[in-house]
Design a protein that fits this description.
Blueprint (H helix, E strand, L loop, with lengths): L1 H30 L18 E5 L7 E5 L5 H7 L28 E2 L5 H4 L7 H14 L16 H7 L3 E2 L3
Parallel strand pairs: 3-4
Antiparallel strand pairs: 1-2
Length: 169
């Protein structure tokens, strides 16, 4: 009979432990921290306004005001519309960086001094002097592409400076 009492004791003990675990779990579940409410907010859409330059086969090329909701059609209409000779198949949209060739004064490679030519990207004293020497030997540049004939001015250098130079024509 002692074993029977011992079995009942262990059975009761296990039952009480299970009951204690269930009650504790229930208390922890219902009293847990619900945390703060999660709110997802999309950031506001960036707005842009300013001036944009429209050129090509349009009636009135130039700078026009741009609002954030303007379309390409709005800009073309602001420039007076496309000319009948316009090739709409070849339409190109160029989005310049914040500092573009239209924002800067172009350097006239036919008249610039050494120090001014050195201000061009990728042009140091040696290349600037080569431009001056070429100009002295051959005369004025007829177009900006001709600068690639100067020793030391590669196509990659030309690509860096083409938006910043002019021949004054």
């Amino acid at each position: 009979m002692n074993t029977d009492k011992l079995n009942r004791f262990w059975l009761l003990a296990v039952f009480l432990i299970i009951l204690l675990i269930v009650i504790s779990s229930g208390i922890l579940f219902f009293r847990r921290d619900q945390g703060q409410e999660l709110t997802i907010v999309s950031p506001p859409q960036p707005t842009f306004s300013g001036q944009i330059y429209v050129s090509g086969a349009v009636a009135n090329p130039g700078s026009f005001s741009l609002a954030s909701d303007d379309t390409i059609q709005d800009l073309v209409e602001a420039s007076g519309g496309v000319l009948p000779t316009a090739d709409m198949q070849g339409l190109q949209l160029k989005v310049p960086s914040s500092i573009t060739a239209t924002d800067v004064q172009k350097i006239d490679i036919n008249r610039a001094d050494l120090w001014l030519l050195q201000a061009l990207p990728g042009i140091g004293e040696v290349k600037a002097q080569a431009i001056l020497d070429y100009r002295q030997q051959k005369g004025y540049f007829h177009n900006i592409e001709e600068v690639t004939q100067v020793p030391g001015i590669s196509d990659s250098i030309y690509a860096k400076i083409k938006d910043y130079i002019t021949t004054g024509n």
